Amino acid sequence: MMHLPTTLFAALSLVTTFVNADVEFISPKAGSTLNGGGAIEIEWKDSGEAPSIADLTTYQLFLCAGGNDEATMIPCPALTPTPGQFSVTGNKATGTVGIGIGADTKNAYFLKIISTAKTGGTVTNYSPRFTLKGMMGTFPANVVTALEGITDTKGPPTVNNVGDANNPAALPDASLFMQPYTMQTGITRYAPMQPIPPTKITKREQKPLYPTSAVTIAKTILPLPKPQTTITQSQTFSISSRENPATPAPHPKDDMAKFLARWKD
């Protein structure tokens, strides 16, 4: 059984001669060897393929190892506790790699990034493979078997589920956002549209959006969470603003002017 460390990790790479994704990672290089437990500096750019980074909002990063299908991969822990934002974090990230996640098999590791599009849906990209040396863990038998058949540094193919005019089937059904989060299953979960604060307080008592649920205290180690990304319903509320055209009020000339003058020195 493979044990996962509590410290999460980050490392990203993409072969520069094989680009079929919205994000192209330029550091570290494909097929490179990295130190397990060390700091990793990563950088990426827009690949020029649709969807562009400008059309994406948030992302989540995962470290994987094994074959090119989920059945032959180790569980992919999230590299970030919360989704990153392309407009905030830019094109760089830093993280560390725990030494207990697996073995140091050549080109066993690759990364997965799930990005949410402004139009709805997600695009999942996989980096090429790289090696982590100094690793102290082990891989399950099915992962070892899958790695024996790997002969290059290519990772799994891109999965484009971005919903737009060319791919309307990828747009989430509106009913998905109405299901309570705890009642949903699968690796992708859906959250309702974020409410807009009112312009004034009209009620003195607040009612919960959903009924309370039972709580069971864990007495043993719980399994790893299965959800990998959360899609929030697109916001339909919009605002507009303009400069105030009113003429500024003149400076006071009465006792208030004398009061304010006291603070000039």
TrEMBL record:
Region (Disordered): 228-256
Residues of the signal peptide: 1-21
GO BP field: (1->6)-beta-D-glucan biosynthetic process; cell wall biogenesis; fungal-type cell wall organization
InterPro entries membership: Kre9/Knh1, Kre9/Knh1-like_N, Kre9/Knh1_C
Comp. bias (Low complexity): 228-241
One GO cellular component term: extracellular region
Domain Yeast cell wall synthesis Kre9/Knh1 C-terminal: 174-255
Keywords: Signal
Pfam families the UniProt entry points to: Kre9_KNH (PF10342), Kre9_KNH1_C (PF05390)
Listed name of the protein: Uncharacterized protein
Organism of origin: Delitschia confertaspora ATCC 74209
Boundaries of every Yeast cell wall synthesis Kre9/Knh1-like N-terminal domain copy: 27-132
Origin: domain of life: Eukaryota
